[in-house]
Amino acid sequence: VKTELFRAGRGPLLNKVLAEALAGRHAWDVLSGSGEMYAPLMERKLVVPYRSPESKAYDGSMIGRDGEWIAYHTNSYVLGVNTHLVKSEQAPRSYEALLDAKWKDGKISLDSDAYPVLIGLSQAWGKEKAVNYLKRLAAQNPVVKRGNDERVQLTAAGEYPLLIAYASGITRVAQKGAPIEWLPLDPVVVQVNPLQVAARAPHPNAARLFTDFALSKDGQEMVRSGFREPARSDVESPSNAALKGFKRVIIGPENYRDYKEYVKLYQEIFRTR
């Protein structure tokens, strides 16, 4: 299958797809994006269910009920630690430990777009407890800015002792020898990044063939080689192995139904509006 890749952030990518559809142009075959793109695409009937033969190797939490999406890879939110600034025995190993006074005033880096953390903790603890916790975390005066990869680099460089970010991004930097490692916090919030097939794909058969390969063992091993978390159950990754024994809260596309409400709440808590 000959592929042509268009890469963009979730906002610009969704806007491009919706604008083209409004203009009667359907130029894409397969989309890999984040879960919050699911509802707008479904509402406008821009995706079609496709149950790949490879889906049998995926856990039920990684597949849409009607086959309208399947996980391509996942992102696990974990605690990153600069090992030059924080000794292993001093590293916080729970959400509650992040509220210790020694981590106050710029010691923790948070993503201004980490809305799935609020969604996931609300699922695990209940919304009231999750909101109360994040308000207490906000009182620690963390540094809140956009960008997982940039914040990982800054933490490795010594800008912050701690950060909450994707395990895969921290692993990529750590394997290059940077003084950074990550620890799971229980529960671990896991964001699903789904694959979806366009309802009016210009190349519908190629779209399905590409999806089959992306979901295959070979395809998922390629995902792993790029230091991402494969979603396929029989393809292990360093991240998945380290998370064994921890409760995982899976945030699939359906969990974004009240997304705007959670975005507003997260922004109010961390004053990013």
Q: Which band does the percent of strand residues land in? A: 15-25%
Q: Report how far apart the termini are.
A: 43 Å
Main beta-sheet annotation: 10 strands, mixed
Task: Supply the helix-strand structural class.
Answer: alpha/beta
Number of helices: 10
Instruction: Tell me the radius of gyration.
Output: 19 Å
- Identify the overall geometry: globular
Helix/strand order, N-terminal first: HEHEEEHHEHEHEEHHEHEH
Give the integer mean of the pLDDT values: 94
Low-confidence stretches: none
Please tally the β strands and state the result: 10
Which range best describes the helical content: under 10%, 10-25%, 25-40%, 40-55%, 55-70% or over 70%? 25-40%
What are the salient characteristics of this protein?
273 residues, ten-stranded mixed sheet, 36% helix
Overview of the molecule:
The structure is a single chain. The protein is an alpha/beta fold and 273 residues long. Helices cover 36% and strands 19% of the residues. The chain has ten helices and ten strands. The chain has helices at residues 10-22, 38-43, 115-125, 127-138, 148-156, 167-174, 204-215, 217-225, 238-242, 259-270, and strands at 30-32, 47-48, 70-82, 108-111, 143-145, 162-166, 180-183, 188-198, 229-230, 248-251. The relative contact order is 0.22.
Secondary structure layout:
Blueprint: H1 10-22, E1 30-32, H2 38-43, E2 47-48, E3 70-82, E4 108-111, H3 115-125, H4 127-138, E5 143-145, H5 148-156, E6 162-166, H6 167-174, E7 180-183, E8 188-198, H7 204-215, H8 217-225, E9 229-230, H9 238-242, E10 248-251, H10 259-270
Parallel strand pairs: 4-5, 4-6, 8-10
Antiparallel strand pairs: 1-8, 2-8, 3-6, 3-7, 3-8, 3-9
